[in-house]
């Protein structure tokens, strides 16, 4: 992805479709691995994603299809 705050953009995608797909999760993990750190903006986005999942507003699904 190689853009600034790529993790935040992936979280925004998950929030928009109200689903966390394996593809989005893999991209988030790849970004974390490549960067080796997490920015404050990306960390806050991941916190929001987890809160939305805990509240049941975002579902973990097997695939987008």
UniProtKB/TrEMBL annotation:
<protein>
    <recommendedName>
        <fullName>Acetylglutamate kinase</fullName>
    </recommendedName>
</protein>
